[in-house]
Design brief:
Number of domains: 1
Distance between the termini: 14 Å
Strand order of the largest sheet: 2-3-1-4
Shape: globular
Largest sheet: 4 strands, antiparallel
Radius of gyration: 13 Å
Number of strands: 4
CATH topology: Alpha-Beta Plaits
Order of helices and strands: EHEEHHE
Length: about 100
């Protein structure tokens, strides 16, 4: 399994905008990501104190993770655009040797 961590750092947005971003992520990312080969899970973490949102998507294998990189960027931009926020985006991919539910 592989994971993609996308961190978006925004400056000084309100709690309402964070809530709106979460709602837009829920509406946009999981349904569209489920259409991509090898997609497994999506997890969103919000750090309001440090103005960061972290999305973790899990993929069946490295090839699927690599194949979804362009779509991941587009989905992040779609969420940010719909929410009306801008931020610095960084992406990193990792091997996930242990995952337990």
């Amino acid at each position: 399994m592989h994971g993609r961590v996308m961190t978006v750092t925004v400056q000084g947005i309100s709690d309402q905008k964070f809530d709106e971003a979460v709602a837009n992520y829920r509406e946009i990312v999981p349904p569209k990501a489920k259409l991509l080969e090898g997609f497994e899970k999506a997890i969103l973490r919000v750090d309001r104190e440090n103005d960061q949102v972290l999305s973790l998507t899990l993929w069946r294998d490295k090839d699927c993770c690599d194949a979804g990189i362009e779509q991941s960027g587009r989905l992040a931009q779609e969420v940010m655009q719909k929410t009306g926020i801008q931020g610095d985006v960084s992406m990193n991919d990792y091997e996930v040797p242990v995952f337990s539910e």
